[in-house]
Design brief:
single chain, mainly alpha, Fumarate Reductase Cytochrome B subunit, two-stranded antiparallel sheet, 2 strands, 67% helix, 5% strand, binds protoporphyrin IX containing FE
Length: 202
Amino acid sequence: MTKKILVWDVPTRVFHWLQALSFLGAYLTADSEKTREIHVTLGFILFGLIAFRLVWGVVGSKHARFSSFIFHPATVITYVRSLFKNDAQHFVGHNPIGSIAIWLLLGMGIGLGVTGVLLLQDDVADSVVTIHAYLTNGMLVVIAGHLFGVAMSSFLHKENLVRAMITGYKKGAEQHGITHGYAWLGAALVIAAAVFAYLYNR
Ligand code: HEM
């Protein structure tokens, strides 16, 4: 029997939306000397959020764990076939195609953070600037794919994935739900980001 079940814990949701906002904010403030401090602050916040996500992917709740969205290539192929047969397989957590975008976004986010930190050093090689710029453009392409995938998946399964990433709830079998939201950890993430932004710009 399907009912409303908690799928995304609070830290995963807070991570997601802060990550999206900090990336978009950093992107919009990248080109002007006047907004450089904001760009660097948001870049550090993004890097810190990804560092948190790497840990939460190991110790977090069921659907936040990396092990729940590392798929065997055969599973990816079966999923793609199901899409073509107009009989899309349903996954309570991330689906096999969506997870590819997620791995790319996390990986490129790490690359952006590392090259960003290097750019703060004196005498940095031009290649670092180039890699930082390529990664930014790569992120934009993958984000476009991510948004398309979210829209398609929401349409195919008649479930609003954006709302689920806000509320944490989806419809599913009770045994697939999680029992703890870890709201305190989500709140701690928001506070940590705000305190960092304040101290870094003091
Ligand atoms: C308004 C823009 C965005 C919307 C509406 C959105 C929506 C979503 C949704 C619905 C999911 C869950 C997908 C699923 O059910 O499998 C998700 C996951 C994810 N999104 Fe986005 N997204 C947005 C922007 C971004 C941006 C800008 C980034 C990267 C900078 C991003 C990175 C991710 C990542 C890494 C996950 C996996 C979450 C996790 O397990 O930690 N998203 N997004």
